Structure formats: C-alpha cells, structure tokens
Amino acid sequence: VWALAGGGAVYLQGGARHPADLDIQCDGEGAYRIAELFPDSITLPTAYRETHAIKSYYGVLEIEGVVVELVGQLSRRFETGWETPVVVKGQRRWVRYRNTDIPVMSLEYEL
Fold first, then answer.
1. Cβ atoms 35, 24 nearer than 8 A
2. Stretch (H or E) spanning 88
3. Could you give the CA distance from residue 6 to residue 43 in angstroms, rounded to a whole number?
4. 24 with 4: CB under 8 angstroms?
C-alpha cells in the first residue's frame, strides 16, 4: 500500500504550488520493494533512518530527472513523544489526474 505524499499530494488535491519532487509514503517493506523495482535509479539506498523530528525507512530514486523520495513507516516526534507510525491505507484518498486514478495522502494528514 502506497500513496503520493507531500507537495505532490497537496498539488493534486488543489494546491497551487507545483512540487519539486515526489514523495511516496508506504510501510517499511514497501519502501524496499519500490526501490527494488528501479535498481538503476537509486541515489540513496533505502534504510531505517532517524532524526530529532522523524524516523522512517527512507530512500531516494531519480527517475527520468525526477527525484522520488521513498518514506516507509513514518513516525513524527511531537512534544509528547513519537506518534504511532502512519497507516497509509487509513489516510489514502484517490484523485483522478489525466485519466489516471492516483493514491494520495489526505489533505487532513498533509496539512
């Protein structure tokens, strides 16, 4: 299960700003599986990474000049501690764009 996230998701749901890259949100296994589909496009191998504000399985691809960030099992830190990792299926919506249905993270989640 995956969905377009970040600026791409907001743009496809009516946002005015064209995204500079594409963010794909999924579970941890999904981040590895998506990267395996594009082995020649990997610029940063998928691995579990943690910063002071977020932790996730993260990797980067570049496909035909477009940077694609893979974010699996994302959890954000708030003042009260780490949130439970996002369940993509629960936040996913479908948007029709150029005759194609695209899974996107909900605006409620993104904003």
1. no
2. helix 88-91
3. 20
4. yes
Place of tokens 């949130």: 83
pTM exceeds cut of 0.85:
yes
Are 4 and 12 in contact by the 8 Å Cβ rule? The answer is yes
Instruction: Give the pLDDT of the chain (111 residues) as one tens digit per residue.
Output: 999 999 999 999 999 998 999 999 999 999 999 999 999 999 999 999 999 999 999 999 999 999 999 999 999 999 999 999 989 999 999 999 999 999 999 999 998
Indicate the residue type of 3: A
Find the helix or strand (DSSP H, E) in which 36 lies.
helix 28-37
Enter the tokens of residue 60: 């980067």
